[in-house]
Protein 1
Amino acid sequence: QLQLVESGGGSVQAGGSLTLSCVGSGYTYSSYFMGWFRQAPGKEREGVASISTGGVRTTYADSVKGRFTISRDNAKNMLYLQMNSLKPEDTAMYYCAADLRRACLGFTCAYKYWGQGTQVTVSS
């Protein structure tokens, strides 16, 4: 069983930056494909970024390309999402997710493990 806990959310003005973190439990953390998702009120959950087990391969939603960077530190069981040039439409609850399946590099996989979420609010 993998447990995930996000942190780093908050309120920021448009154009600002935030870094989200996600710590995972379990000694097999490095075997998991990881992703960040978000859900705004009244909207469906959407994939933001995903990363391979070794951190070499990444994917991004078109809406965040060039602004967000996903990374991981397997030695620390950590996943990060650096968010720059934030926009009001980035306001949402952000979740990290993990799964062992290779197909989970991307956003079409039904990730097995999820964190509780951290709120990001961007004001104009």
Protein 2
Amino acid sequence: QVQLQESGPGLVKPSQTLSLTCTVSGGSITSNYYCWSWLRQPPGKGLEWMGAIAYSGSTYYSPSLKSRTSISRDTSKNQFTLQLSSMTPEDTAVYYCATKSTCSDYDDPIRYDYWGQGTQVTVSS
């Protein structure tokens, strides 16, 4: 069974860049045709898909976050990473990494099969 674990800072100052890493076990991030995503849930709001990296290394981003988001991977460590720049208090949320077996409907949170436990990120000075 695939397991995912997010890691990164819990507190970020406004204007800084957030960097989160998702470490995957029980499966490879290069396995055909898996899709590996970052999602978040602000307090009192629904889940928001942020972006994905496919097994091939292709990346997909939410149009609303594309200018501030970068997703990359380290295949030797079986990890993928989110960077979100120009953080504001509105970016305060629980951030999740998740995966599913194809990249179709990659922007639909309910399609994801395996999830990390989530990590709280607060943006505050």
Protein 3
Amino acid sequence: QVQLVESGGGLVQAGGSLELSCAASGSIFSINAMGWYRQAPGKQRELVASITSGGNTNYADSMKGRFSISRDNAKNTVYLQMNSLKPEDTAVYYCNADVRRRTPGGSLYSEDCWGQGTQVTVSS
């Protein structure tokens, strides 16, 4: 099994900053892309940012310039630094990882893994 554990959410005033982290653990051979998604009440889950194992990043347009994603491959951990937060950033933020795992027979396969989510609330 693979577990993704997020931390760092909370309540912050508009204009403030928060850093989220997500650590993957368990039966992991390697991790390809890692990312953050968010889901606000009544809305669909949307991509916030993603990062490949080589460090290439991708951001949703509304997050560019305010959010920064990074990862520590040795720790199987991904981070999301969020600056200049706005009330509309309020959502549950989910960590996602494309995890490569090995079967008992030795074959490799990919598994899409999700964290439990962490609440971010930005007050106006």
